[in-house]
Amino acid sequence: MKQSTVAPAQGKLGILVVGCGAVSTTFMTGVLMARKGLAKPVGSMTQYDKMRVGRGADAKYLHYADIVPLAKLSDIVFGCWDVYPQNAYQAAMYAEVLKEKDINPVRDELEQIVPMPAAFDKNYAKRLDGDNVKQGLSRWQMVEALRKDIRDFKAQKGCDRVVVLWAASTEIYVPINEQVHYQLADLEAAMKADDREHIAPSMCYAYAALTEGAPFIMGAPNTTVDIPAMWQLAEKTKMPIAGKDFKTGQTLVKSGFAPIIGTRCLGLSGWFSTNILGNRDGLVLDEPANFRTKEVSKLSTLETILKPDVQPDLYGHGNDEDTQYYHKVRINYYPPRNDNKEGWDNIDIFGWMGYPMQIKINFLCRDSILAAPLCLDLCLLSDLAARAGRFGTQRFLSFFLKSPMHDYTQGEEAVNNLYQQYTMLKNAIREMGGYEPDEEID
Q1: Is pLDDT of 159 > 70?
Q2: Residue 15 — very low, low, confident or very high, per pLDDT cuts 50/70/90?
Q3: CA–CA gap between residue 430 and residue 440 (Å, rounded)
Q4: Which residues contact 222 (CB under 8 A, 6 or more apart)?
Q5: Which position among 50, 101, 238, 324 has the lowest Cβ density within 10 Å, counted as fewest Cβ atoms?
Q6: Is this structure's pTM higher than 0.90?
Q7: Helix axes 184-192, 139-157, angle to 10 degrees
Q8: Is 12 helix (H, G, I), strand (E, B) or coil?
């Protein structure tokens, strides 16, 4: 291992999760089971992936932890907030993602993870009706209460560092407002004025985390840290931010398969995506205002990979305006399926002389099983970034996210091509490990 300049991962790493639902409890249970040797953290890049460092005769293929100092699973301490008061064991049993036999060996530890009252506004998630909430607080009071929660958790659990991860529901869509979201001073003024229209509860969590020296990760498509005011706060506090929306099922397929179409120079007439999902996330997304937030996130992936302005013959057809292919995304709440989401894609392509062809993809996935390793990787790599002195938007974490953050104020586009994202991830780890970041993105 080369001499990394990253501060070592000493002491305990606190992971504070917003939400104690299916994703969170699957994540927590898996980590607790893995560190007892009772389960394997399959799907986690930080635990399994090997990457090349060095070139030619000096080339070696190493696990991430052999390149950079990552926190160990045994050093993780969990805490959470949730609108429902059930502890993590009760919540895991209720979610019915994992079998009882895979939860019971760590029951005692899960029962100790009791949700703190959530900073919650029912207008942002009308389908949720929990009573474990901070009552009667303005937005600024929410921030102050959450900051205290973070400080208290850190002290009580003896944590050296904390990461805050949003694994809660999708909020209603909040359009970016230049008068509120572009300058940190304006954002703070809106919080203090209790501007509930422009300040989502998730923004209070992010503000609290960053000001308490904790990296913040947005795992839903909410408008939260993807605003210039939060970028300024991250720069001021020298903290990493990442988001948004865990890339688990259908969008993972899309970000990996769309480059095949583009690389092969095939045409695209239309891409129709639909999902059926029955867990609490599906319930929340059954509300049109909340689905709109998710729709924006899911639609953005394809448009940055297959571009009509770059290849008009291939991608300039399909809709009524005849400007690009037709792209539609649907999510349907279907309770019998619970957490076992089904993503179905119909892709209409065309080839030589314009002759049409079709591709059908049916992904019968388990939403939380795919999300849990992303949670682990995002937390460990955000903690690594903080110790490496990296702050602001962590673009190298785009690999794990459905709608990666980018500076749209400067005309920057998100990188959604999975293989380009993987190159960004490897280069950042090489660099933090003291190696040359030697792969290029064309």
Answers
A1: yes
A2: very high
A3: 13
A4: 166, 170, 171, 174, 200, 202, 244, 293
A5: 101
A6: yes
A7: 100
A8: strand
